[in-house]
Amino acid sequence: MKAIEVKNLKKEIGTLRIEGLNFTVPQGRIVGLVGENGAGKTTTIKLMMDVMEKDEGEVLFFGKTLNKAIKEEIGVVYDEINFYEKINAIKIDKVLKGIFQSWDSDKYFQLLDRFKLHKSQLLGNYSKGMKMKLNIIIGLAHSPKLLILDEPTSGLDPSARMEMLDLFLEFIQNEEHSILISSHITNDLERIADYIVMIHDGKIILQLDKDELLYKYGIIRCSEKQLQYIPKNVIFAYHKTNSLCEVVIKDAPGMKEAYPELTIDGLSIDDMMAIYIKGEK
Predict the structure, then answer these.
(1) 80, 136 in Cβ contact below 8 A?
(2) Most exposed among 4, 122, 191, 243, judged by the fewest C-beta atoms under 10 Å?
(3) Residue 163: which CATH number?
């Protein structure tokens, strides 16, 4: 079962073009959507949720197009909370109880206590991190099967980020649950994601099992002369700085065996994105 299936999604808005995106979120898995600021991550999520109108394409949730019943099964968390600043968490509970049939007040208040959010404090007095925590709690409190999270850990300190990542891992313990998480904090995705979808200038440049990305890909730092001897079919991207080349390769284990004289280091998602964006493909 696919929790999300995105088919040929297109949108032109200003200078950004979303160009025929195709990807899936399998049920029971966490998929990380990564890319630099302006790559199209937030726009993609808004198109998926019909917040913005698509030019072309189709998005299926659990095999169906988006409707009111399906929305009950999706918890969407954007990077900003859309509530009046002079409202508190108690009033938010009353409002959302009338919107979501499956709203669980007990769960909502338990999570508020767990993350030490004051129920009677006005939202305008919350810090950015507190607002993001509240936003995530709201996304979880109607017992969704699918979470769609847009930069959910931005604005959180390292300790709070770890708490939230643990919460997402708890959520995914139920095999019917799935998560799509957009983030530029790639360390978070390296910790929890099963698959990575990398987007640049509105196009998917890579989608792959995270473990394959981290263990089969590598980075070679070499001279321009050495670059000429690296087989082109294993090069994902490279960047030249003066006399040094940084080369992202697709088959690190095979290259280590074939070229023992080259130093091949492990690769982070940040390394891969930076070299692809500023380098040559």
Answers:
(1) no
(2) 243
(3) 3.40.50.300
> Is the model's pTM score more than 0.90?
yes
Domain final residue, candidates 209, 233, 256: 209
Is 258 in the same domain as 173? Answer: no
Same domain, 184 and 61: yes
The tens digit of pLDDT for each residue in 125-184 reads: 998 889 999 999 999 999 999 999 999 988 788 899 999 999 999 999 999 999 999 988
Residue 118: phi, psi to the nearest 5?
A: -75, 125
Of 34, 38, 43, 23, the closest CA to residue 271 belongs to 34
183 and 73 within one domain: yes
In the block, which residue shows the tokens 């931005």?
154
Shared-domain flag, residues 173 and 250: no
Other Cβ atoms within 10 Å of 5 Cβ, number: 16
Is there a single domain that holds both residue 8 and residue 89?
yes
Q: Residues of 29-66 as b/e, b for ≥16 C-beta within 10 angstroms? A: bbbbbbbeeebbbbbbbbbbbeebebeebebbbbeeee
Domain that holds residue 272: 217-278
Residues 203, 234 share a domain: no
Q: How far apart are CA 263 and CA 87, in angstroms?
A: 57
Distance CA 281, CA 275 (A): 9
| DSSP-derived pairing of the beta strands 218-223 and 244-249 | antiparallel
**DSSP string computed for 18-47:** EEEEEEEEETT-EEEEE--TTSSHHHHHHH
